[in-house]
Amino acid sequence: MSTENTTYRPESLTANRPLLWIAAFLSILMMAPVAWIVGLSIKSNQDLMLGTETVFQLPYTIANYINILHSSQAFGWFFNSLVVACGQTLGVLVLSSLAGYAFARLEFPWRRTLFVIVLFGLAVPEQAVIIARHQMFNWFGLHNSYIGLILPNLSSAFGVFLMTQFFRAIPKEIDEAALLDNASQFRIFWKIMLPLTLPAQATLGIFTFLYAWNDYWWPLISATRKEMFTLTIGIASSQTNFAQSEGLGFLSAQAVFASLPVLIVYLIFQRHIVTAVSGGAVK
Predict the structure, then answer these.
(1) For the segment 176-235, what is each residue's pLDDT rounded down to a tens digit?
(2) What is the pTM (predicted TM-score) of this model?
(3) Of 92, 145, 165, 213, whose CB count within 10 A is highest?
(4) Where is each ABC transmembrane type-1 domain found (predicted)?
């Protein structure tokens, strides 16, 4: 009785090796600006005044990060960004979940028409309504406040669409069984349906937090007092006169400091982000 040679030969890996090299090269290329900023942040401002090519030379220092702790408004801006990002994330999750459940599971007049109008929001750029929004918030005196920074982005057309599609994918037999047990609509939503949508909520929450944290356009218009700046606006305002004001190394350290929460969120929830990008959030 003869036996066949079952030795595994990674022919597919060999065939895809050029693609792997290309992907590795592009990854290094995209990481180069990050490495450059980190390198600038650990160089003294005096050395960088002589030329940025000194980033490849010793010595290195953490003095710029120490200066953030002692002489910078970055912590105040950090707190503002944290309040705005968390407030927007919580608000979008609540409103999108309620609206998505209503569009997917309830019957009410003009439901389809209203859903189409919500989807139109995906096609309207923020810049198209920025003047009217600015005037409206100015009339109500909401500029330079947390409410003014959080409120405009609570209406998420993408969030409503995502949650609607996810609720529609849940079998209706679950609702019917709960109704037979005399459960109210709110109890069905809160106790049964909402826990089943945790993957979609995680996806929506991650993207909302990242968008709110990196948002520059609306905080630039609404926050005119320095104490209400978010990190994106505060760091941009510190770059006046380039490195002559506070030092290029110090500004780079602020940029690294501002990016840490985004990096932490990505490392913790990267599985949900990959699922969302691959289209696995809505089944």
Answers:
(1) 888 888 888 888 888 888 888 888 888 888 889 989 998 888 999 998 888 899 988 887
(2) 0.78
(3) 92
(4) 78-269
| Bond prior to 59 in cis (omega within 30° of 0) | yes
pLDDT of 67 over the 90 cut: no
Measured CA to CA, the distance from residue 136 to residue 143 in angstroms comes to 10
Give the per-residue pLDDT at 8: 47
Position 195 in a domain:
yes
Residue 272's pLDDT is: 67
> Would you say residue 181 lies in a domain?
yes
97 and 209 both lie in a single domain: yes
Query: Is residue 256 within 8 Å of residue 41, measured between CB atoms?
Result: yes
* CATH number of 167's domain: 1.10.3720.10
Backbone angles phi, psi at 42, to 5 degrees: -105, 20
